[in-house]
Amino acid sequence: MMSGTKEAMPLATVTAAAGAIRALLRLEEGNEVALVERVAGVALGLAESFCGQMLVERMVEERLAGGVDWQALSAVPVRAILSDGLGEIDGDGRGWVRPSEAALVRYRAGLADGWAALPPEIAHGVAIMGAHLFDNRDAAAVPPAAVAALWRPWRGMRLDVPRRP
Fold it and tell me: Is 4 helix (H, G, I), strand (E, B) or coil?
């Protein structure tokens, strides 16, 4: 479990996702702007939760205890560890650090640089999910199965604590 903070989803990403949702719903520009932006943010958060990884790159700070063992960073995929000389990134994008004493580790994590760089399946799933949330805001309707089908190949599941080989 992560003991730290991560930057919020970039506004440009939320705005781009809202545009995709608006196009899917065939809403005229300027119609329901605040609501579409809100469901876009929720849909992006649901996609990250379902996939188990940060979709759009942003800064993460995580406090770790010191010790001799390697410790896995919580967010994946790690793109860069910014804390000097503390760690490495493996081929799966998992960050590993071995601080000798308690440290605040700063790193950047995320699958893509922004909305346009997201895999099309994830982006389209976000648009469908956002449209679903928009259309069903007054009811507890089940999310479309197509969303899970689009996101499932990108889902990373952990059944145990990661261990460094």
Answer: strand
Return the domain boundaries, the chain: 1-57+113-157, 61-109
Give me the DSSP letters along 94-161.
-EEE--SS-EEEEEEE-SBSSGGGS-HHHHHHHHHHHHHHHHTTTS-PPPPHHHHHHHGGG----SS-
Structure pTM? 0.89
Residue 128's CB is within 10 A of a number of other CB atoms, namely 19
Q: pLDDT class for 89, splitting at 50, 70, 90?
A: very high
Number of H helices, E strands in the chain: 4, 7
Structure tokens at 58: 């942003």
Residues with Cβ within 8 Å of residue 54, at least 6 apart in sequence? 6, 48, 60, 75, 76, 77, 109, 110, 111
Instruction: Answer yes or no: are the C-beta atoms of 85 and 98 closer than 8 Å.
Output: no
Confidence of residue 3 (pLDDT cuts 50, 70, 90): low
